[in-house]
Design brief:
By secondary structure, this protein is mainly α. The chain is built from seven helices and two strands; from the N terminus they run H-H-E-E-H-H-H-H-H. The chain has a single domain, classed as Alpha-Beta Complex (Sufe protein. Chain: A), CATH 3.90.1010.10. It has helices at residues 6-21, 26-38, 81-94, 99-104, 109-112, 115-118, 121-144, and strands spanning 61-68, 71-78. A two-stranded antiparallel ribbon has the order 1-2. The chain is globular and about 45 Å long.
């Protein structure tokens, strides 16, 4: 069962920060990101459609919402291993939450683990585009009721 509460999203961000604190340098952190990306569930080729493509990413990224305002889940994948790792982190924070929680939850994990300083400008833009897309899907779900 997913924790749709705001506390669940905050706890996920805290866990991410604690995990990254174990690594001494960014080489290790990038490797951990790549490992996280490899653990993403299988993503069906049938979902790699234009309607699910996240624009603003240099890499190809597909993000598919499921559910409603009470509980939104996401499937996502990228053709980049580091971006897939960023997706894994983002899904931990936002997938399985209510639309309102998604809208209310700022991605503090980005600054908490130093991603903001260590991602290239194109990857930072891509991460922002993914986060914006997740929040857009949440706003649409909330509008539908």
């Amino acid at each position: 069962m997913n924790d749709t509460s705001p506390q669940g999203a905050a706890a996920a961000q805290t866990e991410i920060a604690e995990e990254f604190a174990f690594f001494g340098d960014w080489t290790e952190r990038y490797q951990y990101l790549i490992d996280l990306g490899r653990q993403l569930p299988e993503f069906p080729d049938a979902l790699k459609r234009e309607e699910f493509k996240v624009h603003g990413c240099q890499s190809q990224v597909w993000l598919v919402p499921e559910g409603d305002a009470q509980c939104l889940t996401f499937k996502a994948i990228s053709d980049s291993s580091i971006v897939s790792g960023l997706i894994a982190l983002m899904l931990r924070v936002y997938s399985g939450r209510s639309a309102q929680t998604i809208l209310d939850t700022e991605p503090t994990f980005v600054s908490d683990i130093g991603l903001a300083k260590h991602l290239s400008p194109t990857r930072s833009n891509g991460l922002l585009a993914m986060l914006k897309t997740v929040k857009t899907y949440a706003a649409q779900a909330l509008a539908k009721g």
